[in-house]
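Standup notes
- HV: blocked on the assembly model, inputs below
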Amino acid sequence: MQPHEFKLNEDGLKAVLPPMEAEIMEYMWKVKVATAGDVYEYLKEKHETLRRSTVSILMNRLCERGLLKRSIETGRGGMRYVYSVATSKEEFEKKVVENILNALMSNFKEATVAYLSKIKK
Amino acid sequence: MLRLIFLAQLAITLVYLRRLGLLFVLGILLVLFGLYLWTITRILRGEHRKLSPDDMPWLYEGIVRMANKAGITTPEIYILDDYIPNAYSFRNSIVLSMGLFEVLDEEEILAVAAHEIGHIKNKDTILFPLVSYGRYFMFALALLNSLISQEALVSLVSFTFYLLYEVLRSDYLKQREFKADEAALRIISTPLALKRALEELKYYEDLRIEVKESAFPSIEPEIERPHQRSIFDTHPSYEERIWRIIAEVEAMNLRERILN
């Protein structure tokens, strides 16, 4: 997963992911494996107008971003998609920091080095 | 009407190109038939899984019940491994994508299946391929007529027939969609479930486009139907279908009240 954008005025995951995708990922990192229906039921408590379509689209988008994996589970009640986390929260955060620092080093090398040495002291 | 235009095109070819025209007609028919055979053997791919009664009893039994009500033999049901909600039918088979199960409830999924049963009952699974291959046939004849006859009038008439066929084909296919909805409303236990399903699918498509337009660079499958409606569209809009379903359900309720 390669974050392409960093929003300075947003907190936590929302700085690199759209708000609802960030909420889905927070939940997924907690439960590790879930169906879109489980995620919908969880988020519905907070977002009353949320629809199943929204959750399905966003979870599949997170799969395309490499944050989630989709597989088919066959059991009682038929077949269904099950989503699991493809990367841990720590790995993801590490990747975000690496990407941002790499971008800063290639665009503002001196200022970045100066600032890093300042905060190191 | 489509049949008439088709025959008129055929007549022009045979009148102006005579024996050569007949040979071309037979040749094109043979090629199209080969293409049809090649296509039908490739409809089912590895992503399709045949549904057995034990897989999803509510779905299997629901489809059996609706097929009986529609007076057709129980269709084969396939589940397609695709997260995008989609459904289609061919011969006596129905395909439902796994995406449908993520965004619709059981009643709505049965309503979507009922629409496909409607297509099978109305013989659309036989007619649609014929009408689709008919357009290639019409275009090939128009091209041949203008190239070989080298008469401006023949070319003009032949291409006009082809264009007319395209416009009428779109209208014909749209009307068949409405007819499949009407057939579905008669066999589902909750008629408004079809309306709810279409509203959700419309919401899904609209939202997906919105998400795609605001997306970071990523791989996005091309699933959306074009936004701009044109005279060559083969599907009516969701709004048209929803409006007709509401009108049909109202009429059904009124008939029931009068009869009781």
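- HV (later): unblocked. Chain A touches chain B at residues 4-5, 35-37, 51-58, 60-61, 64-65, 70, 72, 74, 77-81 (CB under 8 Å). The beta strands of chain A are 33-34, 68-75, 78-85.
- Next: hand off to the docking folks.
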